[in-house]
């Protein structure tokens, strides 16, 4: 049971990592892809050259095929470029390129297959993720090898059947394995800046690396101060069990085993929480609106607030990179409302799409703070949250404005380009109406008459 949980957790981490790499890569080429002033052949050549240079880790790269199976980019097997591989079968006899293209045309998805690992020289199981550039009829893909997951699981199963003394070695191996997995999650896409001519792309890449570095530091602190300490404590308990078994003291052994079990259960819960913080499952499973709903519901349970939410966006049609950014901005804002907005009773979040832009307005009636455009406010402790929001808006190519004054609360307005999933015609709800919902008070019917989630607060 525990091994299945571990395997599933590692697989989910791999999927989140793959999607993150693809989002970063798409951000890097988006300006070229969407620049209608460039001739199509020039834009395609520049995008192909960019994907050819992108690498991460020792075995990470990006490949490109058109929707007819013609190889366009493959940095590790360049002899394949120009070949028609539409009917190529993998070792299991499945049409690999056709499956990858199908996932891309469906709006992006995962595909498992066997492929030769460049650093190992042998065929291993690989998890691929592909998206489509529909305007050109291109499929862009990347993948991670899954052999390390099988190695971790087999090692754990082997050591679980050994005695208490060898369990200490298992804990050491498990700690190292967890550190390696978290380190892989935190790796940044290594895009050579020497050939990047567009200064805007360089700036965006630097901001992305800054975000990842902050995440590495946070994860490092979590592991060192939390999980690592729990595992060290478990090791000492197991050493005590070993000594007690040597003395024949079964009473001490029983109590120590119970204590060790509680410590390991706490460590597992902390690891699950850390994985959830890296990528909330509700965002992937239920979409942006439901994720914001969850944030607001949690806040009104902790604080005496009324939160009013308004939206006309269909979560199913938002690109993951846009949904993630809007979720993180709202999460940061709600956190700062809870922490800093003393006296706040009303919070408003308005998330709507108008043509090619998404607008997010977040306001509260708290104590506010002194604010001037281009400068931090006078009260300490919350400027980092505003900088994080500004960085996320910049990465999406949007604009941010902040209105705040002592005693008058805070209002944040931002607009970012709408990024729809390939094949979808609109990001607005199919009935065109605005839906509202109020948390922490009596629900009020929106223009559409149905209830929807609330979210947001002034990020400070």
Automatic annotation (TrEMBL):
How does the entry describe its membrane topology? Multi-pass membrane protein
Where is it found, in Gene Ontology cellular component terms?
A: cytoplasm; plasma membrane
**Location of this chain's protein in the cell:** Cell membrane; Cytoplasm
Identify the keywords attached in UniProt to this record, alphabetized.
4Fe-4S, Cell membrane, Cytoplasm, Iron, Iron-sulfur, Kinase, Membrane, Metal-binding, Transferase, Transmembrane, Transmembrane helix, Two-component regulatory system
Q: Show the InterPro entries listed in the entry.
A: HATPase_C_sf (IPR036890), HATPase_dom (IPR003594), His_kinase_dom (IPR005467), sCache_2 (IPR033480), Sensor_HK_TwoCompSys (IPR050482), Sig_transdc_His_kin-like_C (IPR004358), Sig_transdc_His_kin_sub3_dim/P (IPR011712)
Q: Which PROSITE patterns match?
A: HIS_KIN
Transmembrane segment boundaries:
168-189
Name the coenzymes or cofactors required: [4Fe-4S] cluster
Q: What is its EC number?
A: 2.7.13.3
- Look up keyword Electron transport and say if it applies: no
The keyword 4Fe-4S is assigned to this record: yes
Pfam families according to UniProt: HATPase_c, HisKA_3, sCache_2
Instruction: Enumerate the catalysed reactions.
Output: ATP + protein L-histidine = ADP + protein N-phospho-L-histidine
Which SUPFAM superfamilies is this protein grouped with? ATPase domain of HSP90 chaperone/DNA topoisomerase II/histidine kinase
Q: Where is the Histidine kinase domain?
A: 218-420
Provide any one GO MF term from the record: metal ion binding
Role played: Member of the two-component regulatory system NreB/NreC involved in the control of dissimilatory nitrate/nitrite reduction in response to oxygen. NreB functions as a direct oxygen sensor histidine kinase which is autophosphorylated, in the absence of oxygen, probably at the conserved histidine residue, and transfers its phosphate group probably to a conserved aspartate residue of NreC. NreB/NreC activates the expression of the nitrate (narGHJI) and nitrite (nir) reductase operons, as well as the putative nitrate transporter gene narT.
Q: What is this protein called?
A: Oxygen sensor histidine kinase NreB
């Amino acid at each position: 049971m525990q091994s299945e949980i571990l395997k599933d957790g590692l697989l989910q981490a791999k999927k989140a990592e793959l999607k993150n790499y693809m989002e970063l890569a798409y951000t890097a080429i988006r300006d070229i892809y969407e620049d209608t002033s460039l001739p199509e052949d020039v834009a395609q050549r520049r995008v192909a050259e960019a994907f050819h240079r992108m690498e991460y880790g020792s075995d990470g790269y990006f490949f490109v095929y058109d929707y007819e199976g013609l190889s366009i980019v493959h940095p590790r097997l360049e002899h394949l470029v120009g070949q028609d591989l539409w009917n190529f079968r993998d070792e299991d006899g499945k049409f690999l390129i056709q499956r990858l293209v199908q996932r891309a045309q469906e709006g992006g998805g995962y595909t498992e297959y066997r492929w030769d690992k460049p650093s190992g020289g042998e065929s291993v199981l690989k998890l691929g993720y592909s998206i489509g550039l529909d305007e050109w009829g291109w499929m862009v893909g990347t993948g991670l090898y899954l052999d390390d997951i099988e190695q971790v699981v087999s090692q754990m199963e082997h050591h679980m059947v050994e005695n208490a003394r060898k369990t200490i070695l298992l804990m050491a191996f498990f700690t190292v394995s967890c550190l390696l997995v978290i380190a892989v999650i935190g790796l940044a896409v290594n895009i050579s800046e020497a050939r990047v001519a567009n200064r805007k792309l360089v700036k965006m890449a630097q901001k992305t690396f800054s975000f990842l570095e902050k995440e590495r530091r946070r994860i490092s602190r979590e592991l060192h101060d939390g999980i690592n300490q729990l595992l060290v404590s478990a090791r000492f308990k197991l050493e005590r069990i070993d000594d007690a078994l040597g003395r024949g003291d079964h009473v001490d052994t029983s109590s120590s085993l119970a204590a060790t079990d509680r410590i390991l259960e706490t460590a597992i819960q902390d690891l699950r929480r850390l994985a959830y913080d890296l990528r909330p499952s509700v965002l992937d499973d239920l979409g942006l609106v439901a994720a914001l709903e969850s944030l607001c519901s949690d806040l009104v349970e902790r604080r005496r607030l009324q939160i009013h939410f308004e939206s006309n966006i269909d979560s199913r049609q938002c690109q993951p990179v846009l949904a993630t950014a809007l979720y993180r901005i709202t999460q940061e804002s709600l956190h700062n409302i809870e922490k800093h907005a003393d006296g706040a009773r009303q919070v408003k979040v308005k998330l709507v799409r108008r043509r090619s832009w998404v607008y997010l307005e977040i306001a509260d009636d708290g104590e506010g703070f002194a604010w001037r455009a281009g400068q931090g406010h006078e009260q300490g402790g919350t400027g980092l949250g505003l900088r994080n929001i500004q960085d996320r808006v910049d990465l999406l190519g949007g604009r941010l404005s902040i209105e705040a004054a002592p005693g008058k609360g805070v209002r944040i307005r931002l607009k970012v380009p709408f990024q729809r999933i390939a094949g979808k015609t609109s990001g607005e709800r199919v009935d065109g109406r605005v839906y509202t919902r109020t948390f922490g008070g009596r629900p009020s019917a929106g223009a559409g008459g149905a209830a929807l989630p609330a979210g947001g607060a002034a990020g400070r």
